[in-house]
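pls ignore typos typing on phone
heme C + seq
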Amino acid sequence: MANVNFIIALSILLILFFTSCNNRQQKAPDTGKVTDTADILKQGDTITARVQKLLLANVMIAMKAGGPGNAVTFCNVHAMPLTDSLAGDYNCRIQRISDKYRNPANKPSATDKEVSAKMISSNVMNPVVISENGRMVYYKPIKIAMPACLKCHGSPGKEVDTKTLEIIRQKYPNDLATGYKEGDFRGLWKITFLGN
Ligand code: HEC
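k done
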């Protein structure tokens, strides 16, 4: 019975999550052919939806099995390999970038900072495609789309309980990724297409 409840809860969360990220249709300002850009947008949407689903499902299972602290330990080991796992299918590099990063590997480049600053200032949260070092790059905003995110990214001592916080501090001594509220801009998906 508990399992059934969990599956129902997970399904609701997944539906909420994906329907809240459903805006697109934007042409890149400074790239080549429109057909290329449209194709990249489509591929980027597909890739990010797949990886997001994979990550979320795994985090939920780890939370269910041992609470958020256990899930932090799980993410510490598996988030990167899981994110990477679809890169080969699309010949691309898949990253999650944040100004307030938890894992220093997710620190933004100068271009990433520009893209996120523009999104925040214009409040236009659509995917964009740009060209960086001759490669097509797709960006899509990541928001704190559900209360579950706050278990590990909310206010320390409030949504993030002390035990979880302890594990976060231990695995990520320079963590910047707490203090968020639901709906906040959290960072960017960045998909760099390697082949032309
Ligand atoms: C169980 C705790 C936990 C939950 C719940 C959680 N995260 Fe995270 N999050 C982490 C950890 C740990 C990392 C660092 C992963 C790594 O080492 O690659 C991370 C990293 C990230 C990153 C990459 C940038 C960075 O700071 O390194 C983003 C973006 C992100 N989380 C967004 C979310 C969103 C959105 C949600 C809700 C859908 C969420 N997280 C839920 C623990 C969590």
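Residues 2-193 form one domain. Confidence is low (pLDDT under 50) at residues 14-34. more later
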